[in-house]
Specification:
Rossmann fold; alpha/beta; 219 residues; single chain; elongated; 51% helix; six-stranded parallel beta sheet; 2 domains
Length: 219
């Protein structure tokens, strides 16, 4: 089934460039374009896209405000925020507005397509480059501390020590294949550990697991 996309970008050259990325992906179709937030909200009502690729910096209302209005009108629409820089306040505001993903614009084409498919299936995604930045710059909003093995087991006794090690790598933005190499295990085993972590932390995906781990000071 084709994924229907609304592209929201005020800069013409950037909009043309992003749209051209989809030429080699017939399973995705850019069914509409908008150059500002208000137009994005109105077009979302009319064409009902599956995914909105939303530039965060728009000339009228922000991409964050537009996201909130779009989701209030139709909760089935998924919004992927596109930004050229890392900003913790914008990340938090984007997620609070209901965005499903926060993506830095220098993402590779293949990875962007992967994120779109994940978001379409119901997952949330935060660019791996953002997590270390937040951990360093959050001034205590999201704790960044190591905890002892005894304290860890007391708080999360259902996670094994190996799963804890995998969780730390998930927080660092490593893929299953990278985790496998880091821990000298098979990719299948790495994937199994990640699935167990997601289940035990009672979250929906690896991104939520990473966010929960940071907020609770697990890593």
């Amino acid at each position: 089934m084709t994924i229907k996309i609304l592209l929201v970008e005020d800069q013409k050259l950037m909009r043309i460039g992003i749209k051209s990325l989809f030429n080699d992906y017939p399973e995705m179709d850019v069914i509409g374009e908008a150059v500002n937030g208000k137009e994005a909200v109105e077009k979302s009502k009319l064409i009902k896209p599956d995914i909105v690729l939303m530039d965060i910096g728009l000339p009228d209302i922000s991409g964050i405000d537009a996201t909130k209005q779009i989701i209030e009108n139709n909760s089935n629409i998924k919004v992927i925020i596109l930004t050229s820089h890392i900003n913790e306040q914008e990340l938090n505001a984007s997620l609070s507005a209901g965005a499903n993903a926060y993506v830095i614009k220098d993402i590779s084409t293949e990875y962007l397509m992967y994120v779109i498919k994940m978001v379409k299936s119901g997952a949330m995604w935060i660019d791996p480059h953002v997590v270390p930045f937040i951990r360093e710059k959050n001034n205590g909003i999201i704790p960044s501390r190591q905890i002892s093995r005894s304290v860890f087991k007391q708080n999360h006794s259902n996670l094994t020590q190996r799963e804890y090690e995998v969780l730390k790598l998930v927080v660092d933005g490593q893929s299953n294949s990278q985790i496998a190499k880091s821990l000298t295990i098979s990719e299948h085993t790495a994937k199994a550990h990640v699935c167990n972590i997601i289940q035990k932390l009672v979250v929906d995906d690896r991104t939520q697991a990473a966010v929960k781990a940071l907020k609770e000071g697990l890593v």
